[in-house]
């Protein structure tokens, strides 16, 4: 049932991002917690969705642009992380590094689905061209109901692609990550956690680059300085305690 729920969330996000509504509900920061919730862990979905939002901040559907399929990639990574953590808990493997380590591996395994989704979008566009011609023929024949049904056919293909691929990616992560982390041990998990932190920094830089504001660099460096100051303050307080 969790995989079915994930497929529905991913499919609806694929439709919402380009074919219907476009209310930004398919953005990683929004769809990540929903994908995590579908498999029982919204917090892990939010943990993954925030840096993915920064990474794919510039991946927006404008006109004929075909960016990476950020919704599909996020659903697979977020759900894969949550499912992997569940598997680690069942195996008695945990610790503070478990979440970022699982997220790093889920990213490596499932993020390529965003690129595969872009290829699928090209296929969808070609199919939609044929559907458009069919709808025009139906309207010319005076059959408005048939033309309306053709519009729904155009929404079914992106839904179906995401419905299938997101659970497959998450399932692969759930299958592979627990044994990989078990073999890696505490040192390997800690190294992966550091890798996830490094990815977070890279995602911040990517998000800053995607911004078109005149003071984007100033905002980015200011946020970096504030974050570093906060970390130093926490470190100093912990030493004092």
Brief write-up:
The chain is an all-alpha fold. It is about 80% helix and about 0% strand. The model has no long low-confidence stretch (mean pLDDT about 90).
Explain this structure.
This protein has 241 residues and is mainly alpha-helical. 82% of the residues lie in helices and 0% in strands. The protein is built from eight helices and no strands. The protein has helices at 2-18, 28-38, 42-55, 70-90, 98-110, 112-140, 144-210, 216-240. Helix 2 (28-38) runs antiparallel to helix 3. 39% of the residues are buried. The mean pLDDT is 88.
Whole-number mean pLDDT: 88
Give start-end ranges of low-pLDDT stretches.
none
Q: Describe the biggest sheet?
A: none
What is the overall number of helices?
Answer: 8
Principal-axis shape equals globular
Layout: helices, strands, pairs:
Elements: H1 2-18, H2 28-38, H3 42-55, H4 70-90, H5 98-110, H6 112-140, H7 144-210, H8 216-240
Helix pairs in contact: 1-2, 1-4, 1-7, 2-3, 2-4, 3-4, 3-7, 4-5, 4-6, 4-7, 5-7, 6-7, 7-8
Task: Spell out the key features of this protein.
mainly alpha; 241 residues; globular; 8 helices
